[in-house]
Design a protein that fits this description.
23 strands; 11 helices; nine-stranded mixed sheet; globular; Alpha-Beta Plaits; 422 residues; Archaeosine Trna-guanine Transglycosylase, Chain: A, domain 4; RNA binding; alpha+beta; 27% strand; Rossmann fold; EC 2.1.1.29; 3 domains
Length: 422
Amino acid sequence: MQVYQKTGYKRFFRWVCRGAEQEKCHDLLSSEGFDFAPVPEVPGAWVEENGPFGLGASLAGYFGFLYIQDLSSMLPPILLAPGPGQAVLDMCAAPGGKSVQLAEMTGEGGLVIANEPSRDRLGTLRANLERLNAANVVTTNYAGQAFPQGPVFDCILVDAPCSGWGTVGKNPAVTRVWKKENLHTLIEVQRKLLEKAYKMLAPGGRLVYSTCTTNEEENQNQVHWILKRTSLAGSPRAQHMQSELGLPGLESTAPGMLVMKGDESGSQSFFMAALEKPGKRAWTQENDKVNAPSSWHKLMPEGFDLPEPLEKIGLYGFSGKVFFVPDKALPYVHQGLRIKGMFAGSLKKNSFVPNPRMRIFLKGSSTMGYQVRDVQEVRALVSGQSRFFDASTRNGLVEFYWQGLPMGWLKHKKSRVFWSDK
């Protein structure tokens, strides 16, 4: 394992795997020739130091054990810092890295509502959540500024659309695409998002506003604008985080506000502000104890038990398809929110057939199913090859493991197994 060097533009990522599986995930990435190192200042952050091909094409990336995410992009969720069991709204969620990071913080008893206004980007968001097995995240498709009024949230992330000037290191054309004189529309959208977020934030809740631009009109000026018009106040959490992390390039510009100078850490430049609403939320766990709508069909598929920590997430069937829906999402459904949970599988002749990517149903270090030790065998299956396997199946699927690490489900036909996530 290499030592993290803070020079030049870097490829950062986060591991997305259960604690007991992380060592195996490291082995999987190493076995393909990648060198990587932790970033000690940022919890959960890693950096690729060397690799034979693109990190996204690695098996660890393909099977959703890691997510490529710029170091600066990991900071807004850390600043928001939702607690276990809390409800979080990510107002502009695609492609989903921050939503998954927030989901890890809230835990299986929590909830992240990942909202994405663009239908095209919504598809990318859902595909990423599925690949990463983010069962406690549900998606919505509203324009952020038109998000239905009524639901309130403990924490809200507004990772706003912006000019992107902070990404100029990897995207030099961005300053030509977004010139200063053309930013009035963006600035108006950002203000509407902040206004809506304020209305949906629970008393005592925290809001983080972030952008990947260096333009003060979209950053500090927008925060000052919302502070003058609402009861929001800058959170001391920002300065505490700066002190705790000691990250090169992370600087405080005003109470509650931080800027990340990317060239000092090999990442993009970023702005973020933590704002808090005064008061205390009049909400208890009893408010979360509501039943699913009577038209919903809750399933308990035999032989496909979820791990115990996921007992607060239900499986529901809709027109032959099965989706995860966290219990904590049900009050929001009753308030009229149109949500969609992560795709878990299908019903065929009243039998549950899991989505091949749902390793969440598999037990770690199992000796069952199709076991592979050579990483090239995994590559062969992913590339479309099949292998002989004459054994019992579970509704036409076979558990798939690499050295005991759950990978997903192989399809089985005529004594052959093959990989297909379709």
